[in-house]
Amino acid sequence: MAAPKKGRRSPGGQGRPGRTLVLILIAMVALVGGMFISGTSTPRLGIDLAGGTSFTLEARNQPGKPNAINETNMNTAAGIMERRVNGLGVSEAEVQTQGTNHIVVNIPKGTDAKQARQQVGTTAQLGFRPVLTTTAGTKTPSTTPSPSPSASSSKGGDGKKGDDGKKDDKPSTKPSASSTTQGRAVTSALKKGPADTPTASGSTSPSPSGSPSPQPSASADEIPAALQKQLADLDCSTKQSRAEAGEKAAGVKPSEPVVACKDDGSQKYVLGPVAVEGTDVKDASAVFDSQQGQGWIVQMDFTGAGGKKFADITGKLATKTQPQNQFAIVLDGAVVSDPRVSQQLNGGSATISGGFTQQTAEDLANMLSYGALPLSFKIADETTVTAALGGEQLQAGLIAGAIGLALVIVYLVAYYRGLALVALASLAVSAVLTYTIMTLLGPAIGFALNLPAVCGAIVAIGITADSFIVYFERIRDEIREGRTLRPAVERGWPRARRTILVSDFVSFLAAFVLFIVTVGKVKGFAFTLGLTTLLDVVVVFFFTKPLMTMLARRKFFANGHPWSGLDPKRLGAKPPLRRRRTTAPTETKEA
Fold first, then answer.
1. 3-class secondary-structure state, position 362
2. pLDDT at residue 12, rounded to an integer
């Protein structure tokens, strides 16, 4: 007979259970530590348990589209809003239409209401418009003692005035707003505009003349008188005036020219019709650029038609002079960047950079990715709502869960006796993992715990206990066949493992389908059920099985103590299996 190869473990090999237990304990400590380090010790609660904020949005027709307010556009807008504030479907934000022209948005307590207001109300209308002319905004400072033409044409410089209303002779050295905030720009082999617009390296590059901003170069004959008057009257000095100017500019048809402010108030523009629309943007994502030192940027990929439009407009602008070789990136009526074009740009992609924080970059990418709203909205009402169900209902749900857990414990102790300790320890590990992960998912993906989610966690108690029972019964079957405990633990595991995996797969598949096909609060139930099902596999494989392997070496369990739950007499075990030796038949020789 060939000797077995060394180093190969038999299918029923016991391995090293101690290492596996240490591994899962380290994971538990890391999760608990991460929970306290993040400053979050309890899961986020849904609006049905904790209350929140309610917005009522009123729809308004888009310019040139008098019949845009209809059921289809309202449902589309509600769907886009829900994806913006409830990307994974588990933050428990509620978005629903009301009547013919209203949408109600309920945001759970603990969510940034200001950010949510911006996400649901911003139309994310992005357009690339060619610059016809530009002049310094009222916030652009003067860098010379004598006023320049651009400074005199603005409504207010940065130079200080004395009591007599005259400007001080002392020159201002305060940097422009855009140079301190590094105005945003689109790059795809693009060169930024001069003056206070950052260069590709992020530094400020002054214009050849030394003036703080580009001077209008288009002649008066090229700009209609009405637009010239609008440009002269445009006030970009305050946040309120810029908001009003942006709202007015957003109401202009894409096919018409418009006057607009830069988002930081440093410039004001006359812009031509939209050359590339936001709908031509296929995808957008927020990325941290560490290689070129631009910080957080928003990467955009154009559609096939959008890429052609982008190449066409950059090709036309590259043949013109300053500032008409620039195009403005206009977001909801405000210019976020005005890069200069020196050559035609192909490739179908672009990057918006400059002045982004992680949150603002993600917000912009989120709005562009999920699409522009088909309608404009204004917030008609904003109220704080109390919990829909309240603490009493939550307490009742927790009491129901405690009763169910108590019944499971009573059954385990009565039927499995000492093995109940293994089951209870496994349930405790599962509870710790579930609680910490739910708590960490709150700030991570916006998960909020509502009553259906609590129900999913309660159902998971039965699923987890069922896995233990399957394994315990396989061990008992092996003992009934006459095997001792240690071989029974190892031989019963492969069959129990298959049954547990099949059972959990069916449960997870049901949760996955339920999560995909349902909307609203039912998603919370499906998400929790799927999460706890996955954790059941982890606990059984990395805690229950190794723990049973170690306990099988203890006399209390190995000798079949009556209270161990593995007493061979109580289980009706057969006599121990013994190998029967068979002798090979021998031939007798005849004398």
1. helix
2. 40
